[in-house]
TrEMBL record:
<dbReference type="GO" id="GO:0010420">
    <property type="term" value="F:polyprenyldihydroxybenzoate methyltransferase activity"/>
</dbReference>
<keyword id="KW-0831">Ubiquinone biosynthesis</keyword>
<keyword id="KW-0489">Methyltransferase</keyword>
<comment type="pathway">
    <text>Cofactor biosynthesis; ubiquinone biosynthesis.</text>
</comment>
<dbReference type="Pfam" id="PF13489">
    <property type="entry name" value="Methyltransf_23"/>
</dbReference>
<feature type="binding site">
    <location>
        <position position="125"/>
    </location>
    <ligand>
        <name>S-adenosyl-L-methionine</name>
    </ligand>
</feature>
<protein>
    <recommendedName>
        <fullName>Ubiquinone biosynthesis O-methyltransferase</fullName>
        <ecNumber>2.1.1.222</ecNumber>
        <ecNumber>2.1.1.64</ecNumber>
    </recommendedName>
</protein>
<feature type="binding site">
    <location>
        <position position="39"/>
    </location>
    <ligand>
        <name>S-adenosyl-L-methionine</name>
    </ligand>
</feature>
<dbReference type="GO" id="GO:0061542">
    <property type="term" value="F:3-demethylubiquinol 3-O-methyltransferase activity"/>
</dbReference>
<feature type="binding site">
    <location>
        <position position="58"/>
    </location>
    <ligand>
        <name>S-adenosyl-L-methionine</name>
    </ligand>
</feature>
<keyword id="KW-0949">S-adenosyl-L-methionine</keyword>
<dbReference type="InterPro" id="IPR010233">
    <property type="entry name" value="UbiG_MeTrfase"/>
</dbReference>
<comment type="function">
    <text>O-methyltransferase that catalyzes the 2 O-methylation steps in the ubiquinone biosynthetic pathway.</text>
</comment>
<dbReference type="InterPro" id="IPR029063">
    <property type="entry name" value="SAM-dependent_MTases_sf"/>
</dbReference>
<dbReference type="GO" id="GO:0032259">
    <property type="term" value="P:methylation"/>
</dbReference>
<dbReference type="GO" id="GO:0102208">
    <property type="term" value="F:2-polyprenyl-6-hydroxyphenol methylase activity"/>
</dbReference>
<keyword id="KW-0808">Transferase</keyword>
Length: 236
């Protein structure tokens, strides 16, 4: 699938329409605000970010990209195809005076043609379930990272438990997310993602789950990969 077509206009419009609320910790992006420190710590624990060249694929409004820049990365590039989300990300970075962070509206496949092997760390979190061809994104991420570099993915497991919690509970019962945020058929089983990573030339090294406790209203990273999960890979 070409880079031009590996995007869903409806998905871009959905997130673009909500872009002005991206940095509101009480908006529909509240879960991202809550899990951002956990994701950052997990990534940094495996691939220390200090002094590294980092790419954040599908950066949206810039929550993770900005956090990685402030955490000590030498340079961070966030890319997305949502013009509105990138505008919000750029404005927030400007207000926060984050000098080592920039953004581009470009498909990851296109960037892979321009800058192969340029980055020490590539992250692609909460994005694969929103594109028509996730394997194409995985291949592009593998091409963008230098030999020995790290690539991190996160997405949603495709199973009944994930449907019950990530769609029915989160979107319809608890109203944690707007209805229609996720399409269950696009969820990706861990074995499928690991297989796509291997086919792209990456070596999957570690997987972790991201779980939510509705009683404490807190997220935690652990071994339960039944709903949300993260996968860490390296390029040989």
């Amino acid at each position: 699938m070409s880079a031009v077509h590996n995007a869903d206009p409806a998905e871009l419009a959905k997130f673009g329409d909500a872009a002005h609320r991206w940095w509101d910790p009480e908006s529909e992006f509240k879960p991202l605000h809550q899990i951002n420190p956990l994701r950052l710590a997990w990534i940094d624990g495996l691939a220390p970010l200090k002094g590294q060249k980092v790419l954040d694929v599908g950066c949206g409004g810039g929550l993770l990209a900005e956090a990685m820049a402030l955490h000590g990365a030498a340079e961070v590039l966030g890319i997305d195809l949502s013009t509105k989300a990138l505008g919000v990300a750029e404005l927030h970075a400007m207000d926060a005076e984050v000098a080592n962070l920039r953004y581009r509206e470009v498909a990851v496949e296109t960037l892979a043609e321009e800058m192969p092997g340029h980055f020490d760390v590539v992250t692609c979190l909460e994005m694969l379930e929103h594109v028509p061809d996730p394997a194409s994104v995985v291949r592009a991420c593998a091409r963008l990272v230098r030999p020995g570099g790290w690539v991190f993915f996160s997405t949603l497991h495709r199973n009944p438990k994930a449907f019950a919690l990530a769609v029915v509970a989160a979107e319809y019962l608890l109203n944690m997310l707007p209805r229609g945020t996720h399409e269950y058929g696009r969820f990706i089983r861990p074995a499928e993602l690991a297989g796509a990573a291997r086919e792209a030339g990456l070596v999957p090294l570690q997987m972790a789950g991201l779980s939510y406790n509705p009683l404490t209203q807190r997220y935690a990273i652990g071994s339960d990969t039944d709903v949300n999960y993260l996968l860490a890979c390296r390029r040989p």
